[in-house]
Amino acid sequence: MPALGEPPFSVKPLYNRESFEFLVIDDEEAITRFLAAYLTQKGHTCATLTEGFQTHIWLEMNDCEVAVIDLNMPKVDGISLITYIREIRLRLPIIVFTGVGYDEQKMHEALRAGANGYVSKNLPVEQLYCVLSRVLATARQRARQEQTVRRRPLLAGAA
Length: 159
Hints:
Blueprint: E1 21-25, H1 29-41, E2 45-49, H2 55-61, E3 66-69, H3 78-88, E4 94-98, H4 104-113, E5 117-120, H5 125-151
Parallel strand pairs: 1-2, 1-3, 3-4, 4-5
């Protein structure tokens, strides 16, 4: 039983759970290397792409649980990439990790395109990790709810 004032549940940080598979898509190789090293240090696996147009081929041959995407990339912009991913992977959580800072218009465009979260590169990487934790927890909860709904037997007949 929790002590007075403590919540009746505990929120486990992402790093205390099983390993997750990430895909980081950013044209800046230093960013992809940094995020891959950070996530690997936290016990996860992380694939990286520095060309947005490679995403289609990568997703056909691989799987991931979260995509982390930059908005400003040459050849394929982040909003178009989010829209594309949403078409082929409806439930894949997508987090925007961008250097444009807090641009409200860009943030809303990304969210309308299907992003699940938005974090500025100007913030500490721990902020990104908190957003990833929240998004993954929500995705896992949604998946459990969908499995529960599928398991319920259909009622036959009328009342």
